[in-house]
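Subject: complex prediction, re-run

Hi both,

The earlier run crashed halfway through, so I resubmitted it with identical inputs.
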Amino acid sequence: MPWSEAMIKSQTKLPASDPSKGRVLNYTAALNEALTLALELDPNIFVLGQGVDDSSGMFGVTKGLPDKFDSQRVFDTPLSEDGMMGVCVGAAMNGMRPVYLHNRPDFLLLTFNQLVNHASKMHWMDSGQTSVPMVVWAAIGRGWGSGSQHSQAIQSLLMPVPGLKIVMPSTPYDAKGLMLAAIADNNPVLIFEHRWLMKQQGEVPEGIYYVPIGKGVYRRRGDDVTVVGTSHILTLALEAVDGLGDQGITADVIDLRTLKPLDENIIFESLSKTGRLLVIDTGWQMSGVCAEIACLAAEKAFHSLKAPIRRIGLPDLPTPAGFTLEQFYYPNAKNISAVIQKMCQ
Amino acid sequence: MPWSEAMIKSQTKLPASDPSKGRVLNYTAALNEALTLALELDPNIFVLGQGVDDSSGMFGVTKGLPDKFDSQRVFDTPLSEDGMMGVCVGAAMNGMRPVYLHNRPDFLLLTFNQLVNHASKMHWMDSGQTSVPMVVWAAIGRGWGSGSQHSQAIQSLLMPVPGLKIVMPSTPYDAKGLMLAAIADNNPVLIFEHRWLMKQQGEVPEGIYYVPIGKGVYRRRGDDVTVVGTSHILTLALEAVDGLGDQGITADVIDLRTLKPLDENIIFESLSKTGRLLVIDTGWQMSGVCAEIACLAAEKAFHSLKAPIRRIGLPDLPTPAGFTLEQFYYPNAKNISAVIQKMCQ
Amino acid sequence: MIRFHYQGQGYYNIDLSTYEQAFLHNLYYAMLRIRRIEEEIERRYCEDEMKTPIHLVIGQEATSVGSCAALKTDDRIYATHRTHGNYLAKGGDLKAMISELYCRANGCVASRGGSMHLLDKKAGMDGSSAIVGGIIPIATGSALAAQLQSSDCITGVFFGDGATEEGALWESLNFAALKKLPVIYFCENNFYSVCSPLKNREPAGTRIDKKADAFGVNAEQVDATNVIKVYEATLRAILRINSGAGPAFLECIAYRWRGHSGAGDDSHTGYRDPKEVLHWETVCPVATFYNALIDQGLLHENQARRMEEMINAEIKEAFAYAINSPNPVYEDLNKFAYSD
Amino acid sequence: MIRFHYQGQGYYNIDLSTYEQAFLHNLYYAMLRIRRIEEEIERRYCEDEMKTPIHLVIGQEATSVGSCAALKTDDRIYATHRTHGNYLAKGGDLKAMISELYCRANGCVASRGGSMHLLDKKAGMDGSSAIVGGIIPIATGSALAAQLQSSDCITGVFFGDGATEEGALWESLNFAALKKLPVIYFCENNFYSVCSPLKNREPAGTRIDKKADAFGVNAEQVDATNVIKVYEATLRAILRINSGAGPAFLECIAYRWRGHSGAGDDSHTGYRDPKEVLHWETVCPVATFYNALIDQGLLHENQARRMEEMINAEIKEAFAYAINSPNPVYEDLNKFAYSD
Ligand SMILES: Cc1ncc(C[n+]2csc(CCOP(=O)(O)OP(=O)(O)O)c2C)c(N)n1
Ligand SMILES: Cc1ncc(C[n+]2csc(CCOP(=O)(O)OP(=O)(O)O)c2C)c(N)n1
Ligand SMILES: [Mg+2]
Ligand SMILES: [Mg+2]
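This time it finished cleanly. Structure:
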């Protein structure tokens, strides 16, 4: 049993979109297609990471690429995360466009010197003379004993850093379109996927298209509350909101898709109608993503607010490895639903 | 001219406290005394860091210690920040209490694997069987071309991390008392000093005393607005607030002293009177410290709030090295004053 | 194609007569026990009740057993994700381990760590990190603590070939050599990191032990299909440390028979030739040692059979214990957020 | 006590007749120019108008000059905090440099980097990092780019002995050797990191070049008080790279005469014996080369005088230019937050 496959399968919902609308792909296949198209498009793009060339192909995301492309374009790396991140920065500064894949964001904590002290700053420090077009991709782990060191959603640790962009898709369509947009971007872009989204199905057009970095989108429209988030927890929020229709509660559910730059206008627009804000994140609740969005609302949409802001993220604790403890640790659709109900009372 | 000494001296205000109240020491001397007392107190405490044994003694903080104590208790290290951080973790797990000093928080970005993946989690992962009593100290740089890589105030990058404590003193009294409290604490505690506070004078009692970690304090009492922050920018806020008395504006100025755990009650208490919140931080404004405090208010003290929350931190840009650009980059007392005036209109 | 050829000697033609029989039995028993425990874990893994990743050490048992046989209970060891062998060889409690795999409240870390974070402080198995290379500086710090406390505790740390690509190892070796710390670095070189062969990650012609040597850490390459060779190399390292000469590095070469994680061999996925596995099975550290003991009249078949039975009974009991143990409850989650 | 003894040969008794005179003049000129520029920076530093840390390279000029003389303009170099020599030897614009030190809008990075972040892309001085060791992986990435683009560009990267304690170096060497990247690692070993002597940071008996060698990177120790030795070692490294044999590592030994940062010698603070400085001054890379050129009739005193004059005039002009240049304005701050 490949580590946690069972768990992920059990979490996977039925296709979200109507197949009559277009071709349906799963999340990994969408990412795979994005990488294939990118590699075909531009000889300066290359894909690297531990195990990108093995048979499991980074959860399937890089499957088949080693057969289609030269071993200089898709290659395995030593276990030297910080060094290889710097190698990517240096290659990007000199005309290449690296796409560096990691199993887990936890491993990016080894690379903060290169990410924060270097990648994010070079363009600015060089007064625009250098660009650092690179993509850093990692999949947030969950379940099957991932535990404290294989489950961290570290977007809050990177969001304060000037010069970085942070992307967190929630659908196969976005996963492909944001990957292509990230590769086309001339800045260091971090993409945090979530392992539990990877079997999701959805409509994915063929060929190259871009989902704009920095633009949120409504996933549901409603009147009572504005729910803002990204990635896996957004799918839980949709489940929660859809279940509240019976009780006459409706919500705007905003998928920010990218956390940095952050589309604040879509939030303010919705708040001017609902007056109630729930911020959700797959990472720790304290400080960072949830707090930033809440703060923006309290600063710039204060007069729209009718009630206290609420946030739902992870508690101020490391992730437990065990199954039972994990159920207590992670918020679920029921928790989200209960909070929304309370907010609308 | 030792790098940036001129700049720091020009920034230093007159003694903040009345010498008749007790012994006056400068900030560095207060820290030096804390380390001396701690080393005398407990043979398991040791102090390490690049250059702690040289004649400049880490801005003076470790001056004289190599003469007073064994070279096993106060020692220089190789330039291996990540490795040495792990060495501290391992020593702390086994009965020692390391105090690891760094010139700059920027260098801590090399150690995020040990800080975030290890130090912060071991006690929890080991289900309480292990403790990691260690202090990591660094001084935020500013001025004289510190630039993007020698000026970062990275508290926002660490605040989301469960298991860490974060201390940011603003007076010599607190610098000493919080250092002693941090050394006595059984958890990894980060202390971020600010280079521009280091020549400040203030009342500092002799002997051992502790400033509690997790308790804020009022530095001014007033009615119109609540200003919340720590460290160097708090001294700017005091300057701003003191200058507004003429205009009949008064403020509660709260020095949180520690960011994690965060004393939310003192903020709520003040807000219930003033209804207006200004959050300030020496670090980047976006995401993190300012946002967390604002979010807490919007969640838990919403009904106290009379006006939009405001925050003042650094813009979403790396730090420029040059003198003129720095003046544009950093907020000053005048900026803070203008914001407060506007909030009170 | 067999990329990583037979390099082990196994036990053929080794004279064991200088060793006490009980000691040899213990070594054999310890290896066999690890093998049987892992086989049982593997057998039951498909039930999906041990909801934890597993990294089996089958084929590499001699490293843990040979090294831990030379260490005292008070000596501390630290491990990486591939913990089982280290934990068991150092004397970790089996019930607490199996309970941890079953995510039970009485697991060795109360279901907070899972298979990648086993520990038993009473036995001197002091912890591990699931971050490759992450535990190495920590173990080095444990040795610094021992030195500062003038204790005679030695720290051992286990990690794979992959970890030698992490800068943290070299920072640690430099510091350990500088301070002459009482630490032994056991690099378990099994030629692979997940499905990535060594030759994709380290330049041809380099040798891990030579690198460690250049850093001032006395290093040797050890045939880790041979438990006695590991034991003797560890003893040499301990003598060195006790003489004040500082740390040692043992590159222990053995082969992982199973896939990187989970149950079963995964050679069919193509990253290694199944023949390579078969090749290494001929130098099984357990079987070759068994044969040598039998051949040299140091072990009788019925003694061996009794060992199998004892192990079998212990395993049954441990699994039953674990399966019947309680799950954690909600209140457990918030414990130990901070240390008092 | 002189801890780090005279190891350099300077220029005594070296036959330079195989070299073209113009080439030798260029080498001398380049070293002298760096020396004089730094002396002027030093002289003016106390005016507190160059509001930037400075890290003078006086005593170590031969490393930059000897290496860059062997590199093409199209080759790229990267540096650490001690940038001046690297920048000037590679052909960086002097006016843009001095303007940067004076925090002017027309500084080489428009007052965003200061002394620790000089660059001139036209000259192939491609950047630096003020984080010790931080630039090394980046330079390695530059070499990877060249390899992937089938360009004949070689990357050189300069760093100190202190940087060899950062794991990032060893990760980089491993990768460069694995991929046979066109990169030369110039380790400027001056025995100190700030006030910390090498013996406090690296174990006695280890050698930096030997470590690099064990990582599969062809390494040699070079007497970097001798510009010709640096030049020749760099040429050998380039030949190696062009033959496809991969990266090289040159441990260039020379001594920093001034304090770690700022103006003047700081030996009085006690971390080194002032005698040590005097000792190394006897093998001044500039003076000994000058003497050799004069002795061997390869340079005439009046040619040397003209060089001094030219340099002098250039320096005067550059400082005047910088001092009269405009400061940045508010609008500059927000430029280049992101790349379009
Ligand atoms: C820093 C880091 N990078 C990557 C991983 C993913 N990972 C887990 S185990 C492993 C293989 C490590 O190989 P090796 O060190 O040789 O140990 P082995 O599994 O062969 O015993 C990898 C790459 C990780 N856990 N940590
Ligand atoms: C990662 C990091 N740690 C510490 C420092 C502080 N620092 C700046 S220069 C320097 C000395 C480095 O010594 P070395 O590498 O030998 O270069 P040298 O100054 O001798 O040329 C130090 C410790 C830094 N800039 N970056
Ligand atoms: Mg391995
Ligand atoms: Mg040096």
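Residues 65 and 199 of chain D are 28 Å apart (CA to CA).

- K.
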